[in-house]
Amino acid sequence: MSIRVRSHTCDCVPTSYELCEGAGLAFVRRTVRSATSTHVSESPWLQRAAAIKLWTALLEGWAR
Q1: Which residue, 24, 32, 43, 47, has fewest beta-carbon neighbours within 10 Å?
Q2: What is the reported pTM?
Q3: What burial letters (b/e) apply to 22-36, b meaning 16+ CB within 10 Å?
């Protein structure tokens, strides 16, 4: 399955986010970089509309 990044935040800061889509579903990926490691976590796969709501809430400061 092919995953596409539809939107992303700036990766010039230690924590960045990506809105990813594939197979009609979507999820948000968070990448946290430090001097010693990189940690990547992903939200559950959601219907596209629900993932866009999560993405919007994240960008507006309503989600964690």
Answers
A1: 24
A2: 0.91
A3: eeebbbbbebeeeee
